[in-house]
Amino acid sequence: MRAFLVDGAGFPSWHYTLRVHARCAPAARSLQRVCCLALMLIFSHDAACASPAVSAGTQHSMALNADGTVRAWGSNADGELGTGRSLQSTIPVSSSGIADVKAISTGGYHTVALKNDGTVWAWGFNGYGELGDGTTRTQSAPIRVPGLANIAAVSAGEGHTLALKSDGTVLAWGDNVSGELGSGTTIDSFTPTPVVGLTGVIAISAGGYHSVALRSDGTVVAFGITVKYGVETAGFRRHGWRPQLWWATPGVRTGPCCANG
Predict the structure, then answer these.
(1) Which pLDDT score, from 0 to 100, does residue 242 have?
(2) pLDDT band at 52 (very low <50, low <70, confident <90, very high)
(3) Are 222 and 195 in contact, with CB atoms under 8 Å apart?
(4) Which among 39, 42, 48 is positioned nearest to 12, based on CA atoms?
(5) Contact criterion met (CB below 8 Å) for 220 and 252
(6) CA–CA distance, 46 with 29 (Å, rounded to integer)
(7) Cα separation of 6 and 221, whole Å?
(8) Is residue 171 a contact partner of residue 198, using CB atoms and an 8 Å limit?
(9) What does DSSP assign to residue 79?
(10) How far apart are CA 40 and CA 31, in angstroms?
(11) What is the DSSP code string of 50-62?
């Protein structure tokens, strides 16, 4: 089934194809709390407003338009859509007051955006300080993360956020229960804090409770929680509060470094 969404000028803008999967999941929660149907919305955009990037959070999704504006849909209980309100949306809506964006990343219940001028903006849940504004106040509209400039990339995890500076160093803030900020402690940070001893980074990714970074020499470092399983499937957790060399991959030079799959 294909449907068209009409923009303010009366012209078709977004359209989507709705696919219904037959597998029944009685206990699953959907945006409308519908049981026994798993719905997948595949959005496409007209060529004039092609989306160069998309990102999916726990219950919300974002799309970056070619003109630097942002659209969002899904759950909005914590303001993660950035509309200035807390109403969920089953169709893409514009995030308010944000433009000239070149990269987006959705976390568990928050969103971060990197502008072309190297500044970082964030909105949504802020219970662990993941918005980086020095508070734990949830924000339903984009706010600028204070003190950040010359940022090259951002990545949002479940409850923490990473920023890659143009000089190859990394900043982190938010939840740090498992050392995912790489600060050498497990103390949450409400403002951007340097990841200790990490330089030469070209790509970052924030996972649920861990973070990974790809360095220019092709090596990968990781910090935070790691879950391993023994022969009896008994799980145990090992925490790395400081960046550790995870594996050496000399052939890896470019590309994403994906912690959250």
Answers:
(1) 53
(2) confident
(3) no
(4) 48
(5) yes
(6) 31
(7) 46
(8) no
(9) S
(10) 11
(11) --SEEEE-SSEEE
Which residue is associated with the tokens 């030469």?
200
Quickly list DSSP for 144-211. Answer: EPTT--SEEEEEE-SSEEEEEETTS-EEEEE--TTSTT-SSS---EEEEEEPTT--SEEEEEE-SSEE
d(CA 234, CA 207): 22
pLDDT value at 147 more than 50: yes
Question: Contact 186/193 with Cβ under 8 angstroms?
Answer: no
Least Cα distance to 156 among 72, 54, 223, 57 occurs for: 57
CA 179, 181, 182, 184 dihedral sign is negative
Q: pLDDT tens digits, residue range 161-177?
A: 999 999 999 999 999 99
Spatial separation of the C-alpha atoms in residues 10 and 105, rounded to whole Å: 30
Q: Hunting for tokens 């089953």 — which residue is that?
A: 90
For 127-142, give the DSSP string.
TTSTT-SSS---EEEE
Q: What is the DSSP letter of 80?
A: T
Residue whose structure tokens are 């303010």? 8
Strand partners, 24: none
DSSP letter for 32, please: T
| Phi, psi for 6 (deg, rounded to 5) | -95, 130
Q: Within 13 A of 35's CA, how many CA atoms are on the CB side?
A: 2
